[in-house]
Amino acid sequence: MHPNQLLYLALFSVLNIPITLGEYISSVSTFFQRIYISRHALAAYLLLLSISIILVDQFTLIHPFIRDDNRHFTFYIYRYLLKPTFPKFSLCLAYAFSFHFLFKQVVNSELKLMRFILWLGASTGYLCLGELVEFRYFAIPFLLLCFELENRNFNLDVEGVHKGENRYTDREKMIWTIIIKGIINLGVFALFLFGEFDN
């Protein structure tokens, strides 16, 4: 059992979610305002943070392929983020934020809450039984999450809960994703062009 896959999925989803950069920044600032003002929001975040810390402490599994094969992203993520103690536990702040962020992006009605719970359960069954962490395994849960977000951004508003919200074009929604992918690709180019490959 590898429940940390859900933590990785949440962070991956937040970094790749198809929303506008302005909406992303607005959501992040609203999150910090809620944490500062509301005791309930702070308690929810601290609960998510506690769960993340327990999962990272008790269930961090490193597959031998990740530890030994320096040709993959996950090797460097393990080496620099999951192996050293401080970065490994510092990421718990990001994991807790990611779950809170995704919940606020998706859930705004009881039906959406049920869908989010079903998505979480299906993602748990799909991801948590394997020890190997590969980003391609996140594709199906991430696409299902994106389909849920499309209800907000396009005219698929069957429930009628997004009537007053702005609609964005595909180009506006993809700017954040393109920026993140560009930064990752620049880092990979720098790593493979200028880095030394040692274990």
Beta-strand share of residues: under 5%
Overall tally of domains: 1
Number of helices: 9
In whole angstroms, the N-to-C terminal distance is: 27 Å
* Cα shape: globular
Count the beta strands. 0
Mean pLDDT: 79
Structural class: mainly alpha
Order of helices and strands: HHHHHHHHH
User: Low-confidence parts, pLDDT < 50 over ≥5 residues?
Assistant: 154-158
Quick structural overview:
The chain has helices at residues 4-16, 21-37, 39-59, 64-68, 73-82, 85-106, 110-127, 139-153, 170-194. Helix 1 (4-16) crosses helix 6, helix 2 (21-37) crosses helix 3 (39-59) and helix 3 crosses helix 6 (85-106). The protein is built from nine helices and no strands.
Could you characterize the architecture of this molecule?
- About 3% of the residues have low confidence.
- It is globular and about 50 Å long.
- It is 73% helix and 0% strand.
- It is mainly alpha-helical and 199 residues long.
- The two termini are 27 Å apart.
- It has one domain.
Distinctive features:
globular; 199 residues
Secondary-structure blueprint:
Blueprint: H1 4-16, H2 21-37, H3 39-59, H4 64-68, H5 73-82, H6 85-106, H7 110-127, H8 139-153, H9 170-194
Helix pairs in contact: 1-6, 2-3, 3-6, 7-8
